[in-house]
Design brief:
Elements: E1 2-6, E2 9-13, H1 27-36, H2 43-59, H3 65-76, H4 83-89, H5 94-101
Antiparallel strand pairs: 1-2
Helix pairs in contact: 2-3
Amino acid sequence: MNTLSVNGHSIALDKDGYLQHLGDWSEATAEALALQEDLHLSADHWEIITLLREFYAEFQLSPANRPLIKFVAQRLGPEKGNSLHLNLLFKGTPAKLAAKLAGLPKPTNCL
């Protein structure tokens, strides 16, 4: 089993590096996961992570790329809700990486 150390606590990860227990998520956990991905979280990242957590709370699933882009565009406008912006923020895999950083399960239709 993979683990992540955050503030002296060991957090269980699945084989793909996603949290095994959604309740283990915190901002510090997101920062630690981002560090593993060699990513520094900016305000733009946090904006998307927060939206993803809202999406999950409402629909109980992690969105794939197209629904993610549409949701972001509806909430933040087309300048942020487009594939170019999200791909730049999340290294070309916005649905997968953003879900991981948000402490959500891997989107079901992502390889």
